[in-house]
Amino acid sequence: MAAKKIRVAVVGTGRWGKNILKILDALSECEVAYQATREWHGLLQKNDIDAVVVATPPATHAEIALPFVERRVPVFIEKPLAAGLEDAQKIAAAAQKSGSIVFVGHIHLYNPAYQAAKEQSKQIGPVRLLLGEGYNFGPVRPDYSAMWDYGSHDLSMMLDLMGEIPESVAAWGTATLRQGTALWDTAQMQLNFKNGTVGYIFSSSVMPQKRRHLTVVGEGGSVVYDDTLVEKKVLLYKKIDTVLEVSYPTYAPGSPLTLELQAFLNAIKTGTKPHTDAIAGLAVVAVLNAAEKSIAKNGGVAIKI
User: Per residue, what are the HEC states of the chain?
Assistant: First the structure.
């Protein structure tokens, strides 16, 4: 007998929502039962929904996700978990209380190339420096900055690699296109970890070229994850005497978004906690919130998290 398909409701049919819909339609273990945009409230009256995907602007995440989380319906929420710390805390608290699965869409953690880079980072000795670069020419989001958009990717990877949040963060932001606002189209963050490791993140939505680049520097070499390349996305530099020898570790094939959505469906089927659960999503928002406070103090101020 064929296994019962997971009936999914998708809220949000913008550019990324359409990508999610396309992949869900192709996955045999699920069925897209409902699609909604602004008129999503009617979904709360449905009793045949097994899971909900929220692919709407971050400012709406808490409003949409909370009623389903409270009803113990598994929810996939696109990154970041929420547009502010208070909303992120509400979602995490509701998930803890109800026991609902909350899966945050930090897609790079499901990218086989990143996973290979993470594994290779174990070969270069203690990690001392992290450098994340994420930018492109747009999109310019109407309700949140490039730091929250691009920077959340780098943050999710750095927190995953370190296995902890930084002790403090300092940040600087520039609103080139929307002067006088906190909608930073270019931002820099410095993360200070307990063991002395420092992470730097540069994010922008006004650069002429696309870049998604993470460099991990250890005492015995470096690992680079470059997601803008078509192949050879992972580079390993091993220190041999006084030179660095480069190699290109292999990694499994697969679409990161497909693998991410399959992980969400598998968490529903098995009842296991996702790697990118509400607590992981909350950690990213907490760091971004601290970065905003640092920018408000004109940068250079290490805000404790």
Answer: CCCCCEEEEEECCCHHHHHHHHHHHHCCCEEEEEEECCCCHHHHHCCCCCEEEECCCHHHHHHHHHHHHHCCCCEEEECCCCCCHHHHHHHHHHHHHHCCCEEEECHHHHCHHHHHHHHHHHHCCCEEEEEEEEEEECCCCCCCCHHHHCHHHHHHHHHHHHCCCCCEEEEEEECCCCCCCCCCCEEEEEEECCCCCEEEEEEECEEEEEEEEEEEEECCEEEEEECCCCCCCEEEEEEECCEEEEECCCCCCCCHHHHHHHHHHHHHHHCCCCCCCHHHHHHHHHHHHHHHHHHHCCCCCCEEC
Contact (CB, 8 A) for 277 and 268: no
Q: Which amino acid is at 47?
A: N
Question: What residues form DSSP beta bridges with 130?
Answer: 199, 216
| Integer Cα distance of 199 and 153 in angstroms | 13
Contact 127, 197 (CB under 8 A): yes
The residue among 14 and 250 whose pLDDT is bigger is 250
> Quick check: 213 and 202 in contact, CB under 8 A?
no
Place of tokens 């992470």: 199
Enter the tokens of residue 78. Answer: 């696109």
What is the rounded CA–CA span in Å between residue 51 and residue 100?
A: 10
Condensed to tens digits (0 to 9), the pLDDT of residues 10-69 reads 999 889 999 999 999 999 999 999 999 889 999 999 999 999 999 999 999 999 999 999
CA distance 187 to 150: 10
- Does the pTM surpass 0.85? The reply is yes
All structural domains of the chain, each given as residue ranges with its CATH number in brackets, are 6-105+257-277 (3.40.50.720), 108-254+287-304 (3.30.360.10)
Tokens representing 158? 């750095």
Strand partners, 214: 132, 225
What is the Cα 150 distance to its own chain's centre? Answer: 9
